[in-house]
Amino acid sequence: MSQSETVVVVTGFGPFRQYLINPSWQAAQGLKMLGLGEGVEVYIRELPVSYAKAQELVSSIWETVKPKLAVHLGIAPGSKAVTLEQSGKNYGYKDRDVCGCCPHGNVCVEGGPDKLDSVIDMKFLTRRLKGMGLDVIYSRDAGRYLCDFVYYYSLHIGKGKAVFIHVLASGSLATPDRLVPLLRTVIITMLRQLEASAHPDHDQLHMELLNAVST
User: What burial class does residue 120 get, using C-beta atoms within 10 Å of its C-beta: 0-12 exposed, 13-18 middle, 19+ buried?
Assistant: First the structure.
């Protein structure tokens, strides 16, 4: 990897209940194969459905890989669209993980704020992508389980430069040939928004996003 390349981390989860091969991890692998365009290095990592182990791996990713953006994928059984999560929550983790454990005090980061938001404007992004005919929806509640937990912790460590995307677990849109290209477009658009976010000209920001979707 050259110093000029942008590094994007994409994570998916490991086995969970009936999902011996987690669709979120399959999607991450598909994105690695498809790529995110010239100059972008995709680093993927499978996260166990364990609060402690997932937290340790997310911390290691930010310390060693230092990505421009961390993209975390998880499944939303029953959903009919890809869900873009705006916020991660700090409290309320009472459901046990695959190891039968909960985080101490049911909290992700002791003393941390109740919620953290991504630097990516998911509401604006969702409107733009839906306008382009993509099956995406906006959410501010990632579910108070491993998805939410990982998201909050990554936002905390990465100073907001993380996103969480819930993918479908079944249906025609869940097939890799449809899901992975859709996710690729979403993530490229996020990167363009990140690059343009410091630009004072909002018309320029809109143009960047339009160009990203059409790439």
Answer: buried
Catalytic residues: 85, 147, 166
What DSSP string describes 82-133? EEEE-EEE-B---S--TTS---GGGBSSTT--SEEE-SS-HHHHHHHHHHTT
Q: Read out DSSP for 9-34?
A: EEEEE--BTTBSS-HHHHHHHHHHHH
CA distance 34 to 49: 25
144 in Cβ contact with 164 (< 8 Å): no
54 neighbors 2 (Cβ within 8 angstroms): no
**pLDDT of the chain along its 215 residues, tens only?**
445 579 999 999 999 988 899 999 999 999 999 999 999 999 999 999 999 999 999 999 999 999 999 999 999 988 999 999 999 999 999 999 999 999 999 999 999 999 999 999 999 999 999 999 999 999 999 999 999 999 999 999 999 999 999 999 999 999 999 999 999 999 999 999 999 875 656 555 555 555 545 44
Q: What pTM does this model have? A: 0.91
Cα angle value 125/128/130 (rounded, 5°): 105
Q: Cα 176 vs. chain centroid, distance in angstroms?
A: 17
The helix or strand, by DSSP H or E, that contains position 178, with its residue range, turns out to be: helix 176-196
77 closest CA partner among 171, 182, 183, 187? 171
CB 28 within 8 A of CB 12: yes
